[in-house]
Amino acid sequence: MSIIDISEVKPGSHVTLHYRLSLADGAEVINTFSDKPATLLLGAGQLAPPLEDILLGLKVGHHSTFQLAPGQAFGPRNPELIQRVSLATLRENSMIGEDFSPGDLVEFNAPGGGRYAGVLKEVGETSALFDFNHPLAGQALAFEVKIIGIL
């Protein structure tokens, strides 16, 4: 007599899986299928909550691809998150002199601790323009998952 594992992914589960996240045009963002699988703790912020929600209820061996509408996984793009940062502020954070180019992801110290990041769009004479949206915000995505184990 064999015991069949009927466990399914629940909040707080440790899930070992392969996953691939790609843009609508097929460009891969992340792919664990060609490497070792990932082990994630649901609810720990290792995946965006909408991606974690997709995993809930899946069983070991499940393998499929989910199509996500623009903004579904990482939220819509927020124009208020495109902001100018003065070069004086960048100097105060000792970031002037570092070699940044438009398109670079730059990390900042957040007031009160912690860190946040923005993509540098352009550097002017007195300020730099940053996009603090998640790089995948507003994007249509494909999320392929294969559940290997659940604890």
UniProtKB/TrEMBL annotation:
Keywords from the UniProt entry: Isomerase, Rotamase
The protein's enzyme class: isomerase
Organism superkingdom: Bacteria
Pfam family, one: FKBP_C
An MF annotation (GO) of this entry: peptidyl-prolyl cis-trans isomerase activity
EC number: 5.2.1.8
Catalyzed reactions per annotation: [protein]-peptidylproline (omega=180) = [protein]-peptidylproline (omega=0)
Domain PPIase FKBP-type: 12-85
Family: Belongs to the FKBP-type PPIase family.
Protein name: Peptidyl-prolyl cis-trans isomerase
Organism: Paraburkholderia susongensis
Source species taxonomy: Bacteria, Pseudomonadati, Pseudomonadota, Betaproteobacteria, Burkholderiales
